[in-house]
Amino acid sequence: MIAVGLGVAVVAGGLLVAGGRKEAPADAIAASAQVKDEGTKALGEPPTENVTLPPGADATAVYAVLTEQIKTLSQQAMSTDAPDLRIRAFAEIEAKLIAFRKAYPGTKEALDAGFQLGTMEFGMQKLDQAQKYLVEFVAKADDTQHEQVGYSRFYLAEIYRGQGKYEAAEGEYKMVISKYSDVNPRLTQYAQTNLDGLAAERKVAVGAEPVAFSVTSIDGKKLSPADYKGKVLLIDFWATWCGPCVMEMPNVKSVYSRYHSKGFEIVGISLDQSRDKLDAYIQQQQIEWPQYFDGKWWSNEVAVKYGITSIPTTVLVDRKGKIRYKTLRGKQLEKAVQELLDEEV
After folding, report:
1. To 10 degrees, what angle do helices 83-103 and 243-259 make?
2. What is the CATH number of domain 215-342?
3. What is the pLDDT of residue 310?
4. Where do you find CATH 3.40.30.10 in the chain?
């Protein structure tokens, strides 16, 4: 996992691309990046056409060259502050890996490409895609891929936790702790920390009421979930340093603009440390909904109450004051907001 933004690193023979996370393995490298969510593609469907793979006599030879190409693309993505360039680099990596899997199905290299895709999609918050690739990898991996399986199980635990599948998450965390403690001591530590935090996570499970808080926004307004009864409320945990958060912001703004007059509200919980950067971003992006900021980063008062260990994280509350969805993005968020607004109170 990455502490801030998105990062790319070579981990266990594969790409690691991770989103805004509270803690990170020491070998992970932080950098902001994100691929805009255009809906989940079918597993194995190339995101672009006419992908050219490097020449080679067999899958092993082709994959060796492809891996070097991907490392170069990853370095390019990490060396620029331009979101569009990062987007293109990660999209090209995705396309090359998918094209390789189609060209050399059933090979060990194709399975490794699936692991790399799973870690990359996980970091880019394309969790349905990530889950499919990682489940496939764990099911087919052999003993020589022990390290990669350890990481895969941790990512799956994180995905299940985000989906509210706490028993499945607990099982994967325990598996990492009991069978993959030799992979990376810090990975084991994070698995134990997140396992211990599942109790707090269950407090904000779907169907529960949002955890109460009463804070003051940066423009002096009182913010409390109880004050939004009768409205559809999105509690959005984010930060300006978080690549996925920034790339999702245009979609959040679009949903707010379309549905605010119909009863949709947003409360932003910023995990920024710099008030100046937050103020500048809000002004630049013309964000209209209230924001809570206390400069405490991951120790943000509201974030701690909600057990937040990764961002972006969203909690969508219906008109009756019950949590109905968590961590929705893109078209899924708009669909859920419209659904909840159409419900009778």
Report:
1. 100
2. 3.40.30.10
3. 82
4. 215-342
What architecture is the 7-201 domain classified under in CATH? Alpha Horseshoe (1.25)
248, 326 contact by CB (below 8 A): no
Threshold 0.85, pTM exceeds: no
Residues 101, 108 contacting (CB under 8 angstroms): no
Query: What is the distance between the alpha carbons of residues 312 and 4, in angstroms, rounded to a whole number?
Result: 11
The predicted structure's pLDDT at residue 18: 37
Q: What pLDDT was estimated at residue 276?
A: 96
CATH 1.25.40.10 positions along the chain are 7-201
Q: Tens digits of per-residue pLDDT, 215-265? A: 999 999 999 999 999 999 999 999 999 988 998 999 999 999 999 999 999
